Amino acid sequence: MTHPLDLTTDVVTLTRALVDLPSESGREAELADAVEAALRALPHLTVRRVGNSVVARTGLGRAERALIAGHLDTVPAAGNLPSRLADGRVHGLGACDMKGGVAVALRLAARIPAPVRDVTYVFYECEEVEGDRNGLAHIGAECPTLLADAALAILMEPSDAGVEAGCQGILTADIVVKGARAHTARAWQGVNAAHRAARVLQRLDDHTPDRVVIDGLEYREGLSAVAVRAGVAGNVVPDECVVTVNFRFAPSRSEEEAEAYVRGLFPEYEVRVTEVVAGASPHLDRIGGFIRALGAEPRAKLGWTDVARFAALGVPALNYGPGDPSLAHTAGEYVPVEHLERCETRLRTWLS
Amino acid sequence: MTHPLDLTTDVVTLTRALVDLPSESGREAELADAVEAALRALPHLTVRRVGNSVVARTGLGRAERALIAGHLDTVPAAGNLPSRLADGRVHGLGACDMKGGVAVALRLAARIPAPVRDVTYVFYECEEVEGDRNGLAHIGAECPTLLADAALAILMEPSDAGVEAGCQGILTADIVVKGARAHTARAWQGVNAAHRAARVLQRLDDHTPDRVVIDGLEYREGLSAVAVRAGVAGNVVPDECVVTVNFRFAPSRSEEEAEAYVRGLFPEYEVRVTEVVAGASPHLDRIGGFIRALGAEPRAKLGWTDVARFAALGVPALNYGPGDPSLAHTAGEYVPVEHLERCETRLRTWLS
To answer: Hey, what domains does chain A have and what are their CATH numbers?
Structure first.
């Protein structure tokens, strides 16, 4: 059954309707059906379905094309359904991350049949889970031309209705400290890998991350142990201690440079890189017009978002959406009505 | 069904029969039945069953009583059943730890109806698992008089057919290092507990354990991290890191002194003691006669054994049994026939 989705209603009612149509990652089919049906009803859009993601494009032959994207999925519910309107806020699962932003984008798609720039709307699945399930990645791999002809991508991630430019890269690596097992009753016959890991942890504690300024925005880096694991049995000197580090690096570093940097900090240990994805530069030179039109003061995005996927396709991208990013994934998440209305008004003005 | 256990056969055949009657900890009933039946058939012994442990006592009114004990259980099988006789060794699960010793004790019980000193034989369950399941502890708690009237206890733990006197104590504690969570994209907003744990691990690495000499025997201590655990999620600065330490301490320290020692090393951290059991002093003054009679050179026992339970009952105890202790719990464990025969002969001489 496809729920009807009324794109002519106001943005608050539409946000609540989206929240009330649950779409935990991997279970977006019903919501994707509803979005697809609503968009196919609009004659000015060409609609394409890829998995449970939906792409809708105007084809007016404008000189420039913009892309507006939002993910359909949410983290699992936490007793925060159905939606609730109170204190000027829409409360409920995904209200902030990011059905409020999706509602804004759907309203723009429906209400502006002839924008001054062509627009590609993207509503995609599985953003909250492993990267290889990400709907935007699937579209980029299967149909890159659907995305790559945009001059600018606006990702409607919650950013307090302000512009957060670029994003950090992420590297995760295991630093492996080796020892030799022994019975603890004869500990001196072994080499305790956990004791030896003190040097790795102290080096992390002593490390001062760089503060990289790009286009006037500061991308402060961070290098953190996120896990330490050692232990064979209660009476055994452990022969291995693994320290997992998470490196958030400025977009000025490539993936290769980030990896070399971490390896260079721990030259005497085995370093197993398990994940590395580059960030995205802010490209204020290419998104400055948008920022000025919105009257926003850009900030650096700390954290990795799908803007990096657009950057990899050569499309400068930014985060711009309603909601406080620190509320994402919390049981009490909400989106202020004022944010919804401000984002919709400013984007409509920019497109009209 | 009770397997017949023939105590008149030679010690090698009896060891193999015991190995071939599996008795993983918690599953000793069948073996305990067999041992009980065989001992009840001997008119010079008074037999008592406690759970799956069996106590058999002579009652000759001798001036002195000795106790000979062995546990019936083994660790889980590791492809090392059934028993095998090769190269002058009995191979198989429990051959070393400690069905060889049990076979020696059963032979003594059967073949010496009128020993020069009264004897209490104890065959008990669940030595290889948590202390609160230990059969010797159960007997000590329920019927302490069955054990406490012995002037000397001989625990047939594998000790290369030599005397290992006393044993170390064990203390296990969690050292808890606290921090404050943050997203790794803003790591500077938190306090990384794993980084701070470097100081705990470095202190362990720098620590020089004491070498305590008692009655000429050296009880070398050891303080080892046996586990390190930290980690909330791949993008979270961890707010807690727990270092589990295992302290093997000389029998000169009481449980309270051992605890105060470890707490004194880490005064600025929360220290949660999860286990502390005292060791046992060698008491060479009280076991010297036995050692001289056996012509053995005593060594310090490194590691904790049930001799400490006898010590707590006021009974001086020692480890004396066939087999190399370093083979215990290995898939390739075996016991040399020469050890079996030497232990049986020497104990028989001492009792006859």
So the answer is: 11-166+280-351 (3.40.630.10), 169-277 (3.30.70.360)
